[in-house]
Amino acid sequence: MTREQYMDTVFKTYRLVSVLSDRNGGRVYRLRHREQGKDIVLRSFVTPVQAYEVLCGVRSQNLPEIYDSVLLEDGQVVLEEYISGMTVAQVMESGHYRRSGAKRVLSGVCCALSVLHELELVHRDVKPENVIVTSEGRVVLIDFNASRKVMVGSKDTAVMGTVGYVSPEQLGVSQSDSRTDVYAVGVLLNVMMTGKHPSEQLAHGHAGRLVRKCTNINPGERFQTAEQLLKAL
Amino acid sequence: MKKCPFCKAEIEDNARFCLYCMTPLEEKKVTAPPSPRHRTRLVLFVVVLIISSVLLTILLLFSGDSVKTANSTTTVAAKTSSVTVSKHTVGNVIPTRDTGSTSAKTTAVDRRTTTEGHGTGAIEPTASGSSQTTYADVTQSMVISASTTNSTRKTTKNKTTENNVTTGKTTISTVATEAAQTSVVYSYRKATSADSLIRSSLNFPNDAIVITGVKIPSVNGVYVVPDVIDGYRVIAVAAQAFCGSDAQIVALPAGIKDVWDEAFADCYRLTDVFLASEAVHIAKSAFAAEGERVGTLTLHCRFDCRDEEYYYYRNEPVREAYAAAYREWDGDTVEWGATE
Prior knowledge:
The complex is a heterodimer of chains A (233) and B (340). By secondary structure, chain A is an alpha+beta fold. Chain A is 32% helix and 23% strand. Chain A is built from seven helices and eleven strands. In chain A, strand 5 and strand 6 (75-81) form a beta hairpin. Chain B has 340 residues and is α/β, with parallel strands linked by helices. In chain B, 12% of the residues lie in helices and 19% in strands.
C-alpha cells in the first residue's frame, strides 16, 4: 500500500481540518473524526523516522501519544495525538516568560527529554515552536522529525535542527546525544526569558548560570542529562 | 486484515490503533516524570545524622572529658555498608593549629579512563582495606546533637596516630560506600596556560587537571574528590563544575588550590565543604545561590582561622567574614574578619 492509498482510507473516516506543515520531508495534517469529532495529527514522510516507531509503545504526560506508525511502500505515515494549546513561540509574541513560568515549561521539556533519552532517542530540534502548553498547563514537546537513535561510534550524517538551537557538535563531526538537547534547552530558556539568543543577551542570575552551563561549547561541561538539568531547575 | 475488538471494523493486521473507533489496540508503557531522588537522599542523610548524634551522645556521656573529640582517619573503604559523614554542631568546630607535621596521605587511584577524559573518583583500598586522606581540622564527630548546640567556641587539640602517621589535627571520618564513591565520574580537562593567567602566581605542573563537572553523580550527594584521576593531579574545581548539582557534602583534597567562579553556585542542598589544602583561593561567587538553602553552609578549612558559618542570602553578596577569610595562594595574607 502506498501513502496515497492509506490516506484515501483515512479520509473516509476523517475530514481535513488544516495542513499544519508542508515541508520537503513530508506533510502534517490535522484531521477530525467525522462522527466522534475528535482531532488527530497525521504525519506523512518520504523517509521513515525511526523515533515514531519507538514512541509507539510509550505514553508520557509530556509527549504526544503516537497512536500508530505505519511503514508503507513509499514512506511512513504516523498517527499522533493532537495537542490543543499554544506553542511557546506564540506565547512569547505577547512578552517574555517570567522565571516561574519558564521553570514550569522547562520542567515539562526536561521530563519529555528524559523519556526520549531513556529510549536512546535524541530530539535534536528543541525550540519554542515545538513546545506546546495546553490550557490545563500540560507541557508537551512535539515534532520528532529530526530525532534519531543514539548509536555509539556513529556520526550524524546530516545536520538537523534549527539555527541558533543547534549545538556546536551537531555542526562538526561528532554525534548528537542527550547533551545536544541540553544545549537547545539552554538556548530555549534564555530566549524565553530575554527574547534573545545567549550570545546576544544572557539571562540574569540563576537562569543565566543554567544557560551558561547548558550551552557550554564543551559537551562534557554541560549538564549531562535532562534529569540533571531538571534537578538544577 | 483483522477486526477491531471494539468496533469490529476491518483494519490492517499490524494496526496498533483503530482509525474507526479511535481506540488504541496495544498496551503502552506509561512513563512517569523523573522521581525526586534527592528527597530520598535527604531523608537518608537525616536518618544517618540522627543515628550518629545518638551514638555521639552516648560516647560523650561515658568519656568523662569536658571537651570531647574523637579521632579517626578519613577512609574511603572499598567495601563498607554505610556513609557516616555527618555534620558537626553549629559553632562547635574549631580547627587547631598545625602542631606537627601533617602527612596528607592520599592513595586515590583512578580506575577508568574514557575517551572524553573522564575519570572516576574511585579510591583504591590499601592492603589493609582502606586509604587515608586527611581532610580538615574539625572535630571528628561531626554530629548534630541536642546537648552541644551551644555557640561557645572551644579549642581542641589532639594528636592521633593512625598507621604511624601523626597529625596535629583531627580528621573527618568519611566512610563512603563503594557504590557511592566508585560510581562517581568526574569530567576534567588539562590545566592550561590560560588558566594560569587567572591565577598568575600559580605554576601548573604538566600533569595537572581541573574538575569541570560531574558525569555520573553521587547517589547520596556526597562527593569525595580524589587527589589523582587517571594519573593526573587534581588542582582546581573549574567554573560552574558543580553548579546546580545536588551535592550535599563535598570534600576537596589537599591538591586543590582553586575553586573558581560559581563552582558550587545554586547547590541548594550543599551544607558542608571540606578543604584539605592549607591555601585555597575561592572565588567570591563560588557558592552563590539565589534561592534558599536547605540549611547552613559550612566551610571546613585548614586556613589560619576559625571555622566560620557562611550564610548566603538571596541576591546578597557573600558575607564579609568569608570574603576576608581566604588566603591567596601566592602567600599574601588577607586580614581576617571578626576576631575573638
